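User: Hey, my collaborator sent me this sequence without any context and asked if I could get a structure. I don't really work with proteins. Can you help?
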Amino acid sequence: MNYNNGKGPGLVAYNVTRTTYDYLMRLVDLGIIEGKVGEMKLAPQIQEIADALNIVAAGGSVKIEVTGRGSPDIAQELRSRLDDAIRDANDINGKSGYYLTLLP
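Assistant: No problem. I've predicted the 3D structure and written it out in structure-token form, which is a compact way to encode the shape of the chain:
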């Protein structure tokens, strides 16, 4: 199905592990994305982190300062989910012999 007849944005399907999907959906549940469908954007505090990531990827450097700890239980849950997602993606990629699934 081609919804745009070659005009505008397109879609690409890419494999992710169940644990990667669950991790990303938990982040969404926690509010990293704001707005209604069709008008969504990163929450401002998340946009700052995305901007910093882009700077590092471009060869720059950033300094990160945590100014509030938030919920330690949720932070640990997210860290555990991320570790599981990376482990599962590496396991699948290693067994397949090539880059089959995206790391979170």
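In plain terms: The chain has one domain: 18-96. You can pass these tokens on to your collaborator as they are.
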